[in-house]
Fold these 4 entries.
Entry 1:
Amino acid sequence: MSLNVFLQNLINGISLGCLFALIAIGYTMVYGILRLINFAHGDIFMMATFFAYYAIALFSLPWGLAFFAAIILTILLGITVDRIAYRPLRDAPRISSLCSAIGMSFFLQNLAIVVFGGRPKPFFRPEFFDQTFVISDIRIQSVSLITPLVSIFFLLILTYIIYRTKTGLAMRAISKDFDTAKLMGINLNQTIALTFAIGSGLAAIGAILWALRYPQIFPFMGMFPGWRAFTAAIIGGIGSIRGAMLGGFLIGLMTIMIVAFFPEQAGYKDAFVFVLLIFVLLYKPEGIFGEE
């Protein structure tokens, strides 16, 4: 394989890894605070693409405004999911919250089928994102270059919020000791709602970038990136933001590089990802950056 082909696939792998990282952060933030896997997260990701699609198709909004509106609506959806499915079960056994999460996932999928229809829809891709840059013999779509820049920008903002603001301090306090944080006067419901808002917002950004990269949307589209991002969060260390970032990058690079280097094994790329997951669980069960 030539150096140019390797660099082209490396850029594609980094771009895909950034998308997985954005989605994985939503899983890891909710787990870090509530010790709950939000199985509806992939479906919130899916809903964001439909919000953007209909903002353009029905209301004829400019694509920038439509994408912003979709992010806001997705944030509100994430807060609503917490309010309806999880907040009433704060003091219930964990299995109750788990069942509620799975039920909310099925509800959003079927709601999308009823409201939006089951047939795939073409997602609008602005010409700006459809351009192809040629550097030497490397052909790169603009969306593959824009995705890492947008992802890193928002990941830096998230890092600042978590480690440099009082809200981030409250989130970290709740993740360490739920009951003590409550005794210290931290508003648990407000902080948890904000956690869902941030995770859903990042999922919406990832969803729009995903739809620009693969311009076809349908009600079950959140399952594939959702499970990949969940796997990335486990590999990196669920509950760790930097672990979710690293896990996303690893899985994105692995997915692209397996197809590039071993095309005859491309159909087994998912198996390689889960083999990596099994090895991590066997030899470092808490994940790369997870805590024991």
Entry 2:
Amino acid sequence: MEARDFELLIGQNIIDKYHSDVSRESVFEWVGLEWDLLDDVWPPIYSPGGELYADEIPFVEMSSFLEMGCGVGIMSVLAALAGCRTVVGLDINPAAVRNTEMNAERHSVADRVTARESDLYSAIRPGERFDGIYWNPPFLDAPEDVVDSSIWHETMFDPAYSKLRRFLRGALDLLNPGGRVYLWFGEALGNPSLIGDLAEELGLQLRTIKRLELSAVPEALADAFPDHVVNAAEHAQWHLHLLELTPMTRNGAALT
């Protein structure tokens, strides 16, 4: 089986697991806080992201923050709770926009958090700029001709990583001086050199803030993987990274 077909299989199995899960609760605990969860919004337990290490991101130094693919709105709310005065959450899923608004209300930061339905940056308003931009993007490549426009495929797949490329290119025009991009990306599947190659191409200095190495398939996803993959996992490394990308000057120095 080719790599992209395998990633399609894994991603579809994870989506099917979500749809068959009758144990999802409308309120759940994550990073020590309670969160509302609407149907048709991806639960963080299925793809734990950078919110697990949000304290590594210098929100206290930011006055403005953008969360791409806000989903439940965890990073948007954490940024606002840390003192960020202007927070924008974007998501292609209208249910996620409502969910982010609910959680901003729950945590009393609705005056600082704005959520908008958006295809990547389409809902950004003229003149908006940010000190920090974050995304937990789809990790899985898959054949473009079998990926549809459903919310579930948008969440799970990025054929040829075209969305990730658009995200990074677009971020360069939306950063304030000294601004940085934060990315949660996995190498359990996917392309292990992709981010480094894109950073070099776009003139971004790449720094790994957190590197997580798992010696097994994450428990929440284990039954989405074929048995032979799970059985071989003890000999594999599942790498997840919280990355910081900083624009560089022409002489290669990071802009500060």
Entry 3:
Amino acid sequence: MFSLILQASPTTTNALLGLVLNKMTDGNPLEELRHDIDRIDDTLQELLWQRAAVVEKIRAYKHKQRAFRRGGFFRPSREIEILRRLLRRHQGRFPKLGIVEIWRTIIASHLAHQEHFSLAVYRPKTKDGCWELAREHYGSIVPMTAESSVTSVLKKVSERTASAGVLPVPRKKEDAWWRHLAGRFEDLQIVAGLPFVDFENGEGKTQALLVAPIPAEPSSKDRSFFMVVTVGGIGPARLAAAFAGEKIKSRSVFTWRGSASARQRFSLIEAEGFFGESDPVLLRVQKRLGAQAKRVTILGSYAVPLDGGKRQQGRKPSRVRT
């Protein structure tokens, strides 16, 4: 019997082995169920082989089109759309978070292979919040380097020694790294938020943003970051009103001023929706703010996280001075 199995084709061999194993496990339901698990595992593995083959074809096509020069492999908006679609069709008792973690591992594995993807992560001595988020999201396969300052993160990404940088969501003076995206590091944009799941669940929990030398892309639901440079006193309420006049719902306003004597202020406005770098709304907002507004620009966007839950009260409009 086994000699016939060995001489058969792979497909026939699998079928014959299945019959033999079923015969051997007659009267033992547990063994039969375990055999079913093995069969399903084999199928999953074979599907992963097929997925990898398709990804390789995409990689070859993008190289031919030279899309890799424009960051064509790293597309966080596409990544979250994959997860959104899978969760919409999900059924059964397998936990949704498990689905997210499995596919994040698959996506990160392909990304690391396609682009030699790596991260520069802000990791001061006092806490590891961004590091833990990045490791949780990208797993152990993506190389990560720890940087003690936000400037060194931006520098590594700008110099292309890291594919993307992970930085804290701005909440205080030390987090005002975003102002450099319209100056020294204007080649970088905010392209994603971490974590992809429950981004807003739990006041005080670490949240992070990814910056990369690629343009942000829209997904089915996004939030964007505007930076407004003003001279003189334009407070959060007036800024929010200017955006509301253009039917843009602002979620938070964060203002930074270099010194007590400096007249120039930098304000970060997080708003609902996706906006591109050349969107005409930028000039309209600047016009609404008047002569005190010297510049309104887009710093990027991120896809609204999966199952974000209710908004917490920890991110109120604020002003920060030094």
Entry 4:
Amino acid sequence: MPLSVTLAVLVAAITHATWNAMAHAIKDQLVAFGLIGIGSVVVAVPLVAVVAPPAAAAWPYLLASVAIHVFYNLGLMWSFSYGDFGQVYPLARGTSPLVVTGLAAAFVAERPTPGQLAGVAVISAGLGTLVLAGRRTNPPSRTALVAAFGTGLTIAAYTTVDGIGVRLSGSPAGYIGWLMILESLCVPAWAATRRRQALRETPRKVIVAGLAAGALAVLAYGLVLWAQTRGELAPIAALRETSVIFGALIATLAFKEPFGRARVVAAALVAAGILVLNLA
């Protein structure tokens, strides 16, 4: 995998973990994701104003991704409402790499090399370590597990759909801009209907944090989509989910969740997987 792609996806992983932690810190999850949606739109509108729009062939995939992202956001809100950040985030993110590997082989005819498969497997093992460790020390509720696993399946679905769509778009920046505008409007509209009074009473610092998280969401996924135009979907999906390790660090520093020996092992496995991917 080219070094530029690796670095872009790692930056995206750090950014993604950061905005998810910011979302988790806001108690009212509908308000949180409503603000994130508004922040994403604010960033995306100027973007689509200055770049070329996606080609016609990309729009069916873009619209399909919008629909999938709505369920992704609902699943993420549900996950954060019922489980600890350090538990549901690894499960949601860790589900997708292996699923994407199968979907990419089925729909994009991408068959990873043995080295790439080994890298994906090692990274997935590291992510799985976090999930299993969390179950032993502080078992999450069944609701949280179902929500996080379902969220992971939506991640795999939109990763594959967007991987195809952005390659057909002829304009990765235009694709991410229109995707963010269309999918980000849904939750704010719902929040305005269901939590209008709560939105009015939201402290200014929470509003700023939510809007900033929305801007970071655009940056994080924009980098991933750019990378998908220059590399295969499965390795990029696995590399992107290193955000779980950064999420574990954030959970320890910001939410005082224990890091523990299991997370050290998971971090080492993920680092080894990254090395394997770049040598494959």
